[in-house]
UniProtKB/TrEMBL annotation:
The organism of origin for this protein: Moraxella cuniculi DSM 21768
The protein, known as: Na+-driven multidrug efflux pump
Compartments where found: Cell membrane
A GO cellular component entry from the record: plasma membrane
Recorded topology in the membrane: Multi-pass membrane protein
Record keywords: Cell membrane, Membrane, Transmembrane, Transmembrane helix
């Protein structure tokens, strides 16, 4: 919407700031990764829910404090404009609620409500678009601040809906947060490697956005923000699939599951079919996505869209493989393979940026993610029984 009705500066401000805040979104996802497994393996669903909510509240408070330190440090390096500061504060307003939102989503998934959660997500997306439009054209806020306000408002509304839903499913007493140190430790253990990977991963992207904002024009920064936004949207699809896979595998008898070759072939074929189908659907919709995001259609921008979709699809293979290994009891090492995107992708992308623009960055990310998937498959073969 900013690319259509906002200025280039507004798009660049929002693109840069939202990537900085994305660090805390990914941290929330990473630290909540073990909730479905914990819930399914707990004998008391209500108690598990209360402990998970207490854990989520603790994460939210910690991330809120961390976000302030993060902002102060970056502002000291390159001063934020007043509008960038306002957008950052507005988006961070939703950080406190985000861990609880994600945890409640995981619990509803574990309760067998995955399809209804998808419907709710679709409704929240439509509400977000409507609120974006309303605030963009019928408020005194700047374009970038209007979009940030709508984003945070919808996150809070979504949390309230999920709380009411959990209360209806398990009783309102299930919403009373409980801080239980053993549960906190167990949930943190599930997410340790994901936390490190997510932190390095998104911090690398955020600092790259920050660097581009300081050194390049608003058009490039805005297009880079769109490129990452498409990757992030696709990433949500693959994370949702990985969560469903975790729930399915964690319900199998004789946990943790054994990595038998036959079972692995079946699961791998399922993963490949889902990722390939999602990529094909994205490719079919790519001209429409190009028009929606850029406001026009040309070959250069179509290549950027297709590169973003392919980057996300290859990463989806890695995410699903990591989910399978996590249920099998290997929670530490597999997520670290995704760091190849930072170690290989960012330096290679910076080098190719000057020669091929954002498409060069996309090629670098594709190469890095492919290396990650290959390394994971080699690692997995060593564990097969």
């Amino acid at each position: 919407m900013l690319s259509w009705w906002g200025s280039g500066v507004a798009l660049a401000d929002y693109a840069m700031t939202t990537q900085l805040v994305q660090v805390f979104v990914v941290l929330s996802l990473a630290l909540s990764i073990g909730v479905p497994i914990y819930f399914n393996q707990h004998s008391d669903g209500v108690l598990a829910t209360r402990q998970a909510i207490g854990y989520a509240c603790l994460i939210g408070i910690a991330l809120l404090a961390l976000s302030w330190l993060y902002f102060v440090g970056l502002d000291a390096v390159h001063a934020f404009s007043p509008q960038q500061t306002l957008v950052y504060v507005l988006l961070i307003g939703g950080v406190l609620s985000l861990p609880c939102y994600i945890v409640l989503n995981h619990i509803l998934d574990a309760l067998g409500k995955s399809r209804q959660v998808i419907y709710l997500t679709a409704i929240m997306t439509v509400l977000n678009i409507a609120l974006n439009y309303q605030l963009l054209f019928n408020s005194s806020l700047s374009a970038q601040a209007a979009i940030a306000t709508a984003t945070t408002a919808v996150r809070i509304i979504g949390l309230l809906v999920l709380m009411a839903w959990i209360g209806q499913q398990l009783g309102t007493h299930a919403l009373r947060a409980t801080l239980h140190p053993p549960a906190i430790k167990k949930l943190l253990d599930f997410g340790q490697s994901e936390l490190l990977t997510g932190l390095v991963f998104t911090l690398g992207f955020a600092l790259l956005s920050f660097y581009l904002n300081a050194r390049f024009d608003a058009k490039l920064v805005g297009e880079f923000g769109i490129f990452l936004n498409m990757i992030n949207l696709s990433f949500v699809v693959y994370v949702g699939f990985a969560s469903a896979l975790v729930i399915y595998l964690s319900k199998l008898p004789n946990q943790p599951i054994k990595l038998h070759r036959t079972t692995n072939r079946q699961i791998d074929w399922l993963i490949i079919r889902f990722v390939a189908g999602s990529l094909l659907a994205g490719a079919v919709l790519s001209p429409l996505l190009c028009w929606l995001y850029f406001g026009q259609f040309d070959t250069k921008q179509l290549l950027i869209v297709l590169a973003a979709l392919l980057v996300a699809a290859i990463d989806g293979l890695a995410i699903a493989t990591i989910a399978k290994l996590r249920v099998a009891g290997d929670t530490k090492k597999p997520p670290l393979f995704r760091l190849l995107l930072v170690v290989v992708g960012l330096p290679l992308g910076g080098w190719l940026l000057s020669m091929a623009g954002l498409f060069g960055v996309g090629i670098a990310f594709i190469i890095a993610n492919a290396c990650s998937v290959i390394a994971l498959k080699v690692y997995q073969k060593r564990l097969l029984l």
